[in-house]
Amino acid sequence: FVSAIISKFKKIPLITSDQGGLFTHPDYQNRGKKRILYKIQEPMIKFIIKQSEKIIVANEYEQEIFSKYCDVKKIKIIPNGIDLNSFQNIPFNFKNKYKMKEKMILFLGRFAKVKGIDILLDAYTKLIKENEFENVKLVIMGADFGYSKEMFEKIKKNNLDKRIKVIIKPDRKEVIAAYHACEFLVLPSRWEMSPVTPLEGFACKKTTIGSKIHGIPYVIKDNENGFLFENENIDDLQKKMKELLLNPIKCQKLGIKGYEMVEKKFNNNLMGERIFDTYNSVLNLKSNMDNNET
After folding, report:
1. In this predicted structure, what is the pLDDT of residue 284?
2. Higher pLDDT, 279 or 35
3. Which residue in 43, 88, 141, 184 has the most C-beta neighbors within 10 A?
Protein backbone atom coordinates (compact mmCIF):
# COMPACT_ATOMS: atom_id res chain seq x y z
CA PHE A 1 0.00 0.00 0.00
CA VAL A 2 2.87 2.36 0.84
CA SER A 3 4.45 1.56 -2.53
CA ALA A 4 1.23 2.54 -4.29
CA ILE A 5 1.16 5.90 -2.46
CA ILE A 6 4.80 6.57 -3.40
CA SER A 7 4.04 5.55 -6.97
CA LYS A 8 1.19 8.04 -7.18
CA PHE A 9 2.97 11.08 -5.74
CA LYS A 10 6.42 10.38 -7.20
CA LYS A 11 4.97 9.24 -10.54
CA ILE A 12 6.93 6.01 -10.42
CA PRO A 13 5.41 3.03 -12.32
CA LEU A 14 4.02 0.32 -10.07
CA ILE A 15 3.91 -3.36 -11.01
CA THR A 16 1.95 -5.66 -8.70
CA SER A 17 2.33 -9.42 -8.40
CA ASP A 18 -0.61 -11.27 -6.84
CA GLN A 19 -0.07 -13.91 -4.18
CA GLY A 20 -3.34 -13.82 -2.23
CA GLY A 21 -6.22 -14.01 -4.68
CA LEU A 22 -7.84 -10.78 -3.48
CA PHE A 23 -11.10 -11.63 -1.72
CA THR A 24 -11.49 -15.26 -2.86
CA HIS A 25 -9.90 -16.88 0.20
CA PRO A 26 -12.41 -18.81 2.35
CA ASP A 27 -11.53 -16.66 5.36
CA TYR A 28 -13.06 -13.70 3.56
CA GLN A 29 -16.35 -15.59 3.26
CA ASN A 30 -16.45 -16.47 6.96
CA ARG A 31 -17.46 -14.32 9.86
CA GLY A 32 -15.08 -13.13 12.53
CA LYS A 33 -11.90 -11.11 12.92
CA LYS A 34 -10.32 -12.21 9.63
CA ARG A 35 -13.34 -11.11 7.62
CA ILE A 36 -13.29 -7.72 9.36
CA LEU A 37 -9.59 -7.40 8.54
CA TYR A 38 -10.26 -8.17 4.88
CA LYS A 39 -13.00 -5.51 4.83
CA ILE A 40 -10.56 -2.95 6.22
CA GLN A 41 -7.99 -3.89 3.58
CA GLU A 42 -10.40 -3.82 0.63
CA PRO A 43 -10.17 -0.07 -0.18
CA MET A 44 -6.38 -0.26 0.05
CA ILE A 45 -6.23 -3.20 -2.33
CA LYS A 46 -8.50 -1.45 -4.83
CA PHE A 47 -6.22 1.61 -4.66
CA ILE A 48 -3.17 -0.58 -5.37
CA ILE A 49 -4.90 -2.15 -8.38
CA LYS A 50 -5.90 1.24 -9.75
CA GLN A 51 -2.39 2.61 -9.30
CA SER A 52 -0.64 -0.38 -10.89
CA GLU A 53 0.60 -0.16 -14.47
CA LYS A 54 0.65 -3.94 -14.70
CA ILE A 55 -0.63 -6.77 -12.50
CA ILE A 56 1.19 -10.08 -12.80
CA VAL A 57 -0.89 -13.22 -12.21
CA ALA A 58 -0.05 -16.90 -12.60
CA ASN A 59 -3.07 -18.16 -14.56
CA GLU A 60 -6.44 -17.38 -16.14
CA TYR A 61 -8.27 -17.98 -12.87
CA GLU A 62 -6.39 -15.12 -11.22
CA GLN A 63 -6.86 -13.02 -14.35
CA GLU A 64 -10.62 -13.47 -14.06
CA ILE A 65 -10.53 -12.33 -10.42
CA PHE A 66 -8.63 -9.14 -11.19
CA SER A 67 -10.64 -8.35 -14.32
CA LYS A 68 -13.55 -7.44 -12.02
CA TYR A 69 -11.49 -4.54 -10.66
CA CYS A 70 -9.54 -3.33 -13.70
CA ASP A 71 -9.18 -3.50 -17.47
CA VAL A 72 -7.99 -6.96 -18.52
CA LYS A 73 -5.26 -5.27 -20.62
CA LYS A 74 -3.57 -4.29 -17.36
CA ILE A 75 -3.20 -7.96 -16.38
CA LYS A 76 -0.22 -10.04 -17.47
CA ILE A 77 -0.24 -13.83 -17.09
CA ILE A 78 3.17 -15.21 -16.15
CA PRO A 79 3.02 -18.85 -14.96
CA ASN A 80 5.05 -19.88 -11.93
CA GLY A 81 8.46 -21.26 -12.74
CA ILE A 82 10.74 -23.64 -10.90
CA ASP A 83 14.40 -24.61 -11.20
CA LEU A 84 14.39 -28.11 -12.69
CA ASN A 85 18.08 -28.64 -11.93
CA SER A 86 17.53 -28.32 -8.18
CA PHE A 87 15.33 -31.44 -8.21
CA GLN A 88 17.52 -33.80 -10.20
CA ASN A 89 19.86 -34.93 -7.42
CA ILE A 90 18.25 -37.15 -4.77
CA PRO A 91 19.69 -36.08 -1.37
CA PHE A 92 19.12 -39.48 0.29
CA ASN A 93 16.91 -42.55 0.14
CA PHE A 94 13.74 -41.42 1.91
CA LYS A 95 12.29 -44.90 2.39
CA ASN A 96 15.52 -46.27 3.80
CA LYS A 97 15.72 -43.42 6.31
CA TYR A 98 12.24 -44.14 7.63
CA LYS A 99 12.47 -47.93 7.17
CA MET A 100 9.55 -47.87 4.78
CA LYS A 101 8.86 -50.78 2.43
CA GLU A 102 5.32 -49.80 1.43
CA LYS A 103 4.18 -47.83 -1.58
CA MET A 104 3.97 -44.17 -0.65
CA ILE A 105 1.41 -41.42 -1.25
CA LEU A 106 2.60 -37.89 -0.45
CA PHE A 107 0.86 -34.76 0.81
CA LEU A 108 2.99 -31.64 1.12
CA GLY A 109 1.54 -28.37 2.37
CA ARG A 110 0.31 -26.31 5.29
CA PHE A 111 -1.64 -28.09 8.00
CA ALA A 112 -4.74 -25.95 7.47
CA LYS A 113 -8.41 -26.82 7.00
CA VAL A 114 -8.42 -25.17 3.59
CA LYS A 115 -5.78 -27.64 2.38
CA GLY A 116 -8.29 -30.51 2.61
CA ILE A 117 -6.16 -32.90 4.67
CA ASP A 118 -9.35 -34.25 6.25
CA ILE A 119 -10.63 -35.17 2.78
CA LEU A 120 -7.41 -37.06 2.06
CA LEU A 121 -7.51 -38.85 5.41
CA ASP A 122 -11.07 -40.03 4.81
CA ALA A 123 -10.28 -41.23 1.28
CA TYR A 124 -7.09 -42.97 2.46
CA THR A 125 -8.97 -44.67 5.31
CA LYS A 126 -11.43 -46.15 2.79
CA LEU A 127 -8.62 -47.10 0.42
CA ILE A 128 -6.58 -49.21 2.84
CA LYS A 129 -9.63 -51.18 3.97
CA GLU A 130 -9.26 -53.04 0.67
CA ASN A 131 -6.74 -55.88 0.99
CA GLU A 132 -4.81 -54.99 -2.16
CA PHE A 133 -3.88 -51.59 -0.72
CA GLU A 134 -2.66 -52.70 2.70
CA ASN A 135 0.90 -51.97 1.60
CA VAL A 136 0.27 -48.27 0.94
CA LYS A 137 1.58 -45.62 3.34
CA LEU A 138 0.57 -41.96 3.49
CA VAL A 139 3.25 -39.37 4.23
CA ILE A 140 2.10 -35.92 5.34
CA MET A 141 4.70 -33.14 5.35
CA GLY A 142 4.28 -29.51 6.32
CA ALA A 143 3.87 -27.01 9.15
CA ASP A 144 0.93 -26.24 11.42
CA PHE A 145 -1.45 -23.47 10.37
CA GLY A 146 -4.22 -24.21 12.84
CA TYR A 147 -5.27 -27.73 11.83
CA SER A 148 -2.51 -29.85 13.37
CA LYS A 149 -4.40 -30.83 16.54
CA GLU A 150 -7.53 -31.83 14.64
CA MET A 151 -5.44 -33.73 12.09
CA PHE A 152 -3.68 -35.85 14.72
CA GLU A 153 -7.01 -36.51 16.47
CA LYS A 154 -8.48 -37.74 13.18
CA ILE A 155 -5.47 -39.96 12.54
CA LYS A 156 -5.83 -41.51 15.99
CA LYS A 157 -9.61 -41.89 15.70
CA ASN A 158 -9.24 -43.77 12.41
CA ASN A 159 -6.46 -45.99 13.84
CA LEU A 160 -3.98 -44.67 11.28
CA ASP A 161 -1.05 -44.05 13.63
CA LYS A 162 1.04 -46.82 12.09
CA ARG A 163 -0.15 -46.20 8.53
CA ILE A 164 0.69 -42.50 8.30
CA LYS A 165 4.04 -40.75 8.70
CA VAL A 166 3.78 -37.06 9.64
CA ILE A 167 6.89 -34.93 9.20
CA ILE A 168 6.68 -31.44 10.67
CA LYS A 169 8.73 -28.59 9.17
CA PRO A 170 10.79 -30.73 6.79
CA ASP A 171 13.93 -29.20 5.32
CA ARG A 172 14.42 -28.89 1.58
CA LYS A 173 16.46 -32.08 1.24
CA GLU A 174 13.72 -34.02 3.02
CA VAL A 175 11.09 -32.64 0.66
CA ILE A 176 13.03 -33.45 -2.51
CA ALA A 177 13.81 -36.95 -1.26
CA ALA A 178 10.11 -37.50 -0.51
CA TYR A 179 9.10 -36.33 -4.00
CA HIS A 180 11.37 -38.94 -5.56
CA ALA A 181 10.26 -41.70 -3.19
CA CYS A 182 6.49 -41.36 -3.60
CA GLU A 183 4.22 -43.01 -6.15
CA PHE A 184 2.29 -39.77 -6.57
CA LEU A 185 1.14 -36.65 -4.69
CA VAL A 186 -2.33 -35.59 -3.59
CA LEU A 187 -3.48 -31.95 -3.49
CA PRO A 188 -6.99 -32.05 -1.94
CA SER A 189 -7.29 -28.28 -1.36
CA ARG A 190 -10.62 -26.53 -0.96
CA TRP A 191 -9.03 -23.33 -2.31
CA GLU A 192 -5.86 -22.85 -4.31
CA MET A 193 -4.63 -20.02 -6.50
CA SER A 194 -1.58 -21.23 -8.41
CA PRO A 195 -0.08 -24.29 -6.68
CA VAL A 196 3.66 -24.89 -6.91
CA THR A 197 3.75 -28.32 -5.23
CA PRO A 198 2.47 -30.21 -8.32
CA LEU A 199 5.13 -28.45 -10.41
CA GLU A 200 7.84 -29.60 -8.02
CA GLY A 201 6.42 -33.11 -8.17
CA PHE A 202 6.51 -32.94 -11.97
CA ALA A 203 10.16 -31.85 -11.76
CA CYS A 204 10.78 -35.26 -10.15
CA LYS A 205 8.55 -36.94 -12.76
CA LYS A 206 5.83 -37.63 -10.21
CA THR A 207 2.17 -36.99 -10.97
CA THR A 208 -0.47 -35.38 -8.72
CA ILE A 209 -4.15 -35.94 -7.99
CA GLY A 210 -5.75 -32.56 -7.30
CA SER A 211 -9.19 -31.19 -6.56
CA LYS A 212 -10.99 -29.72 -9.56
CA ILE A 213 -11.22 -26.20 -8.20
CA HIS A 214 -9.92 -22.64 -8.75
CA GLY A 215 -6.33 -22.52 -10.02
CA ILE A 216 -5.49 -26.23 -9.79
CA PRO A 217 -6.76 -27.29 -13.27
CA TYR A 218 -4.38 -24.75 -14.85
CA VAL A 219 -1.47 -26.85 -13.57
CA ILE A 220 -2.92 -30.37 -13.38
CA LYS A 221 -4.45 -31.40 -16.69
CA ASP A 222 -6.88 -34.25 -16.10
CA ASN A 223 -5.69 -37.52 -17.62
CA GLU A 224 -2.79 -35.70 -19.31
CA ASN A 225 -0.28 -35.11 -16.55
CA GLY A 226 -2.41 -36.03 -13.53
CA PHE A 227 -5.92 -36.60 -12.26
CA LEU A 228 -8.56 -34.19 -11.00
CA PHE A 229 -11.29 -35.20 -8.56
CA GLU A 230 -14.51 -33.44 -7.67
CA ASN A 231 -13.90 -31.06 -4.77
CA GLU A 232 -14.53 -32.67 -1.35
CA ASN A 233 -15.68 -35.91 -3.03
CA ILE A 234 -14.02 -38.62 -0.94
CA ASP A 235 -15.19 -41.47 -3.16
CA ASP A 236 -13.86 -39.81 -6.30
CA LEU A 237 -10.47 -39.18 -4.68
CA GLN A 238 -10.30 -42.79 -3.50
CA LYS A 239 -11.14 -43.96 -7.02
CA LYS A 240 -8.35 -41.85 -8.56
CA MET A 241 -5.81 -43.08 -5.99
CA LYS A 242 -6.79 -46.69 -6.73
CA GLU A 243 -6.38 -46.14 -10.45
CA LEU A 244 -2.84 -44.84 -10.10
CA LEU A 245 -1.82 -47.54 -7.62
CA LEU A 246 -3.17 -50.27 -9.90
CA ASN A 247 -1.61 -48.76 -13.02
CA PRO A 248 2.03 -47.88 -12.22
CA ILE A 249 2.94 -47.50 -15.89
CA LYS A 250 0.19 -44.91 -16.41
CA CYS A 251 1.24 -43.20 -13.20
CA GLN A 252 4.79 -42.95 -14.52
CA LYS A 253 3.66 -41.67 -17.92
CA LEU A 254 1.58 -38.91 -16.32
CA GLY A 255 4.61 -37.83 -14.29
CA ILE A 256 6.77 -37.68 -17.42
CA LYS A 257 4.13 -35.57 -19.17
CA GLY A 258 4.17 -33.23 -16.19
CA TYR A 259 7.95 -32.96 -16.41
CA GLU A 260 7.73 -32.06 -20.11
CA MET A 261 5.14 -29.37 -19.31
CA VAL A 262 7.41 -27.81 -16.69
CA GLU A 263 10.29 -27.85 -19.18
CA LYS A 264 8.24 -25.98 -21.79
CA LYS A 265 6.06 -23.65 -19.73
CA PHE A 266 6.77 -23.56 -16.01
CA ASN A 267 10.56 -23.27 -15.74
CA ASN A 268 12.20 -20.42 -13.83
CA ASN A 269 14.23 -19.17 -16.81
CA LEU A 270 11.10 -18.56 -18.85
CA MET A 271 9.36 -16.93 -15.89
CA GLY A 272 12.36 -14.62 -15.38
CA GLU A 273 12.37 -13.60 -19.04
CA ARG A 274 8.66 -12.81 -19.00
CA ILE A 275 8.94 -10.74 -15.82
CA PHE A 276 11.92 -8.83 -17.25
CA ASP A 277 10.02 -8.13 -20.48
CA THR A 278 7.02 -6.86 -18.49
CA TYR A 279 9.13 -4.45 -16.42
CA ASN A 280 11.00 -3.35 -19.52
CA SER A 281 7.79 -2.58 -21.43
CA VAL A 282 6.40 -0.52 -18.51
CA LEU A 283 9.65 1.45 -18.17
CA ASN A 284 9.80 2.09 -21.94
CA LEU A 285 6.21 3.32 -21.89
CA LYS A 286 7.02 5.65 -18.98
CA SER A 287 10.11 6.94 -20.81
CA ASN A 288 8.13 7.65 -23.99
CA MET A 289 5.46 9.49 -22.01
CA ASP A 290 8.10 11.63 -20.30
CA ASN A 291 9.69 12.48 -23.65
CA ASN A 292 6.33 13.49 -25.09
CA GLU A 293 5.70 15.80 -22.15
CA THR A 294 9.01 17.55 -22.72
Report:
1. 83
2. 279
3. 184
